[in-house]
Amino acid sequence: MSRKIGLCLLILVMILSGCMDATPIEEVSVSLILGLDLDEEDNLLVYMSSPIFSKEAKDKEEVYEVKAYTLRQSREKFDARVIGLTSGSKTQVFLVGKRLLKKKGWFDYLDPFFRDPKNTVSARVVAVDGSVADVIFNKPTDKPRLSLYLTSLIDAAAKRNIVKDTTLQDFHRQMKDKGRTAWITQIKKKKRIELTG
């Protein structure tokens, strides 16, 4: 009888231990879109777009740009600017600028993102024909939040075989496989955001 009680208490303690370090969503800055690009002097620019979970806020999305040497350093700079702790676990879209794509060895910039187990590898990789800033700072009034709009746009085009939906994990596999050429979705900002291939 005492073994059953002890086992029940052990199970109860194991279940409740997950509630000890709970973080309210208001204290987390969830990066739904991450962007990487280079400026004119070839400095790395990192962009982050995250929703704001506050009733008082008029704008429901915040977008930041930092100049950094690595993704890891950019996270420290984002943490100094945003309200809560930066989290990459819900990233939906990973934008890569054309200037960065032309640089040899650009894929190495993504290495810290793959090494952190809290980051997701199911985000879609998207090449931007132009500047990432033109896309990420775009706030159309007739469209939903940019992260939702981009994922819906890519999903619909992938169903019609206009583009190939490539996640970070797929892209990593393609880049490491010497027998195949990697491919990702490409967008361009004209009057509005358009898929170009």
From TrEMBL:
Keyword Protein biosynthesis recorded: no
GO annotation terms (biological process): spore germination
Annotated keywords: Signal
Entry's transmembrane regions: none
Annotated Spore germination protein N-terminal domain residues: 21-188
Lineage top rank: taxon: Bacteria
Positions in coiled-coil regions: none
Signal sequence extent: 1-22
UniProt keyword DNA repair, yes or no: no
Annotated Gene Ontology cellular component terms: membrane
Name of this protein: Spore germination protein N-terminal domain-containing protein
Species of provenance: Peribacillus simplex
Lineage: Bacteria, Bacillati, Bacillota, Bacilli, Bacillales
